[in-house]
TrEMBL record:
The name this protein goes by in its record: Sugar phosphate isomerase/epimerase family protein
Organism name: Streptomyces lateritius
Domain Xylose isomerase-like TIM barrel: 36-285
Keywords: Isomerase
Single GO molecular function: isomerase activity
Length: 302
């Protein structure tokens, strides 16, 4: 058997998402101590902060808890609705600042930015039109650039915008439109392989076409059969996850080996954080999956 080429520029990690964590506080989620114990036990070094308030927000406490488990933080995550224009800036910045300050204190270099959902994540009720107007696109791109500039100047972090199902930055067309309208110096992309496939995109093609814009990776796969049913039934993202649309690699799509090879070929260091959406899930389910996933990624050279 041929040994895979080492992916020397890819830094593998995992996230609270892979333990079914979507909220700062939810009785159906594993306690944060268990997440930290298990993510370290599964062989990961890097983690994300997850929803603000799930992990301790006191940097001294979090540094002690992560440090004694041999863990380091790669990024924080924020949700934004910048297409709504300047009226939402102050509220957005208050949310961003808390996350960015903690990420900076933990030595992270990135802030993952997820656009807001156009339909309710649980009920599927439309919150707004699924297509943005030209004016909304200008607000989205212009304010995202402002966010990138201010996060960099105030916290020394680089924003990486995460295309996501049920948001306005989702498909190949919308991702290309977003990238073409934003300054590469201020705005990079967090390519989530699962969400991009969920929305019909080709991750390898995106890396090869917009390589200089790829600043971060989320490794995820979708089950194509479940996805077909989700699309046919117009199921919103939350219930789609409950159906198991995001699945354990290597059983889904896209194949991660060519994605990782394309990322390695960019010639830059990239985080590749495993994120298998599983909310809600049995608390004993995530750890064995995390162990198997880490073993699979090692077999890919990562």
């Amino acid at each position: 058997m041929t040994k895979p080429s080492p992916l020397s520029r890819i830094r593998i990690g995992s996230a609270p998402d892979s333990w079914g964590v979507w909220f700062a506080d939810d009785p159906r989620q594993v306690p944060w101590q268990r997440f930290l114990d298990e993510v370290a036990g599964a062989g990961y070094t890097w983690i994300e902060l997850g929803p603000y308030g799930y992990l301790p927000t006191d940097p001294a406490v979090l540094a002690e808890e992560t440090g004694r488990r041999g863990l380091k933080v790669s990024a924080g995550t924020v949700f934004t609705g910048l297409h709504h224009g300047p009226a939402v800036w102050e509220k957005t910045w208050a949310h961003v600042a808390d996350n960015a300050a903690l990420a900076q204190a933990m030595g992270a270099e990135h802030l993952v930015v997820i656009p807001s959902f156009w339909r309710d994540d649980k009920t599927g009720a439309a919150l707004e039109d699924r297509d943005l107007t030209a004016g909304q696109w200008r607000d989205l791109t212009g304010l995202t650039e402002r966010l990138g500039r201010e996060v960099r100047e105030r916290y020394g972090l680089r924003i990486v915008v995460h295309p996501h199902a049920d948001t306005h930055v989702d498909s190949e067309e919308n991702v290309a439109r977003f990238l073409d309208a934003t300054d590469p110096e201020l705005v990079s992309l967090c390519l989530d392989t699962g969400h991009y496939a969920y929305c019909g995109g080709d991750s390898v093609k995106l890396i090869e076409t917009y390589g200089e814009r790829i600043g971060y990776l989320h490794l995820k796969q979708v089950d194509p059969e479940i996805l077909a049913g989700v699309v046919a039934d117009e199921v919103p993202f939350g219930p789609a996850v409950a159906r198991g649309v995001m699945c354990e690699p290597p059983s889904g799509v896209p194949a991660l080996e060519p994605v990782l090879a394309a990322a390695q070929a960019l010639g830059v260091e990239l985080f590749a954080i495993v994120e298998q959406d599983m909310y809600p899930c049995d608390p004993d389910r995530p750890y064995p999956i995390a162990v198997r996933t880490r073993r699979f990624l090692r077999s890919c050279g990562a």
